[in-house]
Each structure stands twice: as structure tokens, then as C-alpha cells.
From TrEMBL:
Pfam families: PASTA (PF03793). It comes from Thiospirillum jenense. Residues 1-23 form the signal peptide. Residues 36-87 form the PASTA domain. This is PASTA domain-containing protein. Keywords: Signal.
Amino acid sequence: MKKLLVLFCIMTLPVTTVNNALADDTVVVPKINGECGDVDQLIKRAGLRPKAIDIHGPIDEDAGDIGCAYRQRPKAGTRVKKGSTVTYRSWWEAG
């Protein structure tokens, strides 16, 4: 009986170690939809890489104010690996 218990404990230890390693390598995506200004810095501070898609027209129906972020991917609150890319749209007036 004791041998079986020891074997069970040894088998579960690596799984716990792997789960902790994965948890340490992830971050939560910040909410940037509706944010205006330096959205890229918000994303970088979270340990992620920003990718802005500038829209110069026609303007999407779900666009907010000029220069503000919308259509964020992945969504805010999602847990992703550090260094992942967060894509968003922002519209500007064409000169």
C-alpha cells in the first residue's frame, strides 16, 4: 500500500511544475478599446507587442473618436504568453 502512494505522489509532481511554469510565462491583456493617446505604451507595459492598424477611411461603424483604439484582439482580460501581439484599429483624418 505504501509503495502505491509514493508512486502516485511522484507522478503528480511534474504536472504541478509544468503548470507553474506556464502560469509564470503569461500576462493579462489590458483593456485598450476606447483608449486614446499612447495605446502602444499600455500594451508594452503589460509585456506585450502592439500592432496598430491605421484606418484612413471609410470609417468603421464601431470606430470611436479619432485616434482612439477599437477592435482589440485578443480581447481584454485574456491571458496570453508574454511577448504576444495585441492588434487594434485606430482611425485618422486624411489630410
